[in-house]
Amino acid sequence: MAIEERVRELAGEVEAADAAAAEKARARHLELTKPPGSLGRLEEAGVRLSGISGACPPPVPERPAVVICAGDHGVLARGVSPWPQEVTALMVRNFCEEGAAANALARTAGARVSVLDVGVAGELPGHPRLRGAKVRSGTDDLSARPAMTREEASRAVMAGAGIAEELVESGEVDLLVTGDMGIGNTTPAACLISAFTGRPPSEVTGRGTGIDDETYELKVRVIEEALRLHEPDPEDPLGVLAAVGGLEHAALAGLVLMGAACRVPVVLDGVSSGAAALVARALAPDAPDYAFAGHLSAEPGAAAALEELGLEPLLDLRMRLGEGTGALLAVPVLQSAARVLGEMATFEDVGIG
Amino acid sequence: MAIEERVRELAGEVEAADAAAAEKARARHLELTKPPGSLGRLEEAGVRLSGISGACPPPVPERPAVVICAGDHGVLARGVSPWPQEVTALMVRNFCEEGAAANALARTAGARVSVLDVGVAGELPGHPRLRGAKVRSGTDDLSARPAMTREEASRAVMAGAGIAEELVESGEVDLLVTGDMGIGNTTPAACLISAFTGRPPSEVTGRGTGIDDETYELKVRVIEEALRLHEPDPEDPLGVLAAVGGLEHAALAGLVLMGAACRVPVVLDGVSSGAAALVARALAPDAPDYAFAGHLSAEPGAAAALEELGLEPLLDLRMRLGEGTGALLAVPVLQSAARVLGEMATFEDVGIG
Predict the structure, then answer these.
(1) Is the CB of residue A275 less than 8 Å from the CB of residue A257?
(2) Nearest to A90 among B41, B335, B351 (CB)
(3) Which of A191, A327, B21, B167 could disulfide-pair with A269, CB 3.0 to 4.6 Å?
């Protein structure tokens, strides 16, 4: 139980964002040289960044890092994805060697890329960009038995929290971007989203990397079976994770919690990140105060998760890759939102009004 | 007629984008380490960048410049905006002194900021960031007489083209962002959009920087009057510009044309840029091949213009400021789209499939 206790301790450190700083930002927006409200959602984002940092203007988050949490999934044996399990490990190597989409997009965002192996099947060769924190070699088949134990889920949460803490405490990172890699991981993501939103699997299940109608129907059926088998209780988030989650979802929940505890903005990517954020919120109700929805993934579960979290996505480019790609594209939007509050002249400065 | 001839000559230099290079990019996307289509609109953007540059992968546009074209409007005397005309000149100074929203957002995008005075009322003090190319001190009241002469419209088009050419030929700029400043300029923008799309003024008129119901109704009425008075002929784009346009819209049309002639991507901002792009398309039907819709402005005319141009906006942050702000936010999306094609590993590279 010690490790579960650590998760609860971390969750207990999450406090609501600073409403007074957010209010200052709202007032500041009215003084800047632009018609009130004319920067739309950029203004909202600036207000939220002020609440997160407790300062108006908020610091410009210029040192982003994407953490790609990777794991494998026993449920893949049910045939829910056309991709073989080995692809997870191959993609981890691709991230390390900077050949993946996340690496290309991280370059534009000026983000460092870290990969956290929290549950990839088999051994991975070491690499400076790869953090080894394997809790187990992939989960069990969640449609037949719990994906993992509560202790394993808790350890994965703390692994994600650990890397987030280290990055933030190094002083070299001031914004966290969630990324995920795991062949088959939209199945546990849909289970988690269904469990926490109460929506039926058919509403929150998507085609992941691209599956045909037959596989899609199978996938929905597998998710329905899993939920019937475990009857996950949303009041017990670690129990839900253990029953129907993935190790990378657990790690991402930890990353969201630690970002919130450290008062650092966390930009969520797609459906796996949304599922993880629901776990984080169930553990710490104020955690979403620190989260931004980077984009609206084309996976239907993503929209359901974000609606439940009360987060409106910043971008919608019909992406569905994961890896943090959609969230990385939103980083300049947040940087711009902070710059508006910190760098614009006021009407008084320029002699208008 | 010499100057009109120069506009036509420039328009004649615009050729369609390179379909073969675009096709290569489509094929390349299928080989990269991601499920086909999973990067959504980022893939489309990469295909278009390949067509524009005639190369796959396309160069990453790392040296953007926003050109803020500024002018004043005689129609302001009708009371279509609550802001006084002097604000145009004050905002030009604000751009020069780097205190405006466009400056803050340009910093995130790594974009240089140039201001083109093509028609601000009164004299402006010189500044290194300000290009003086004043055609006249604001337009006439377009609801009573032509806003300007055909020659003036043509000179303003060539002023915008001139600064675009100079920036591109300097080798320091490889992507152009359109920006506008002009108190009252959503009125001529709506006139232009109505003239080129055939939609009634009530459908394409918005509240600009924020006006009350009474002013809004007056604005629609003024636009209806102007269109009835001039009956602008969309087959004669310089005539439309002269009758119901603005000097900054003319300059922006020239910028769009020159970007297309130089095969450089042009990122359009909001309703004034959309109106200008319609003028450019009427002069050179292939000009939109080189344009990206940076965002969907909250002004209803913007959506109408983009639909007519066949351009889908990249972002929608409910912004309505102008100055190039919405387009600047889209620059990293285009940089990312180019990087995907140029920097990602293929499935073969990493041993998948």
Answers:
(1) no
(2) B351
(3) A327
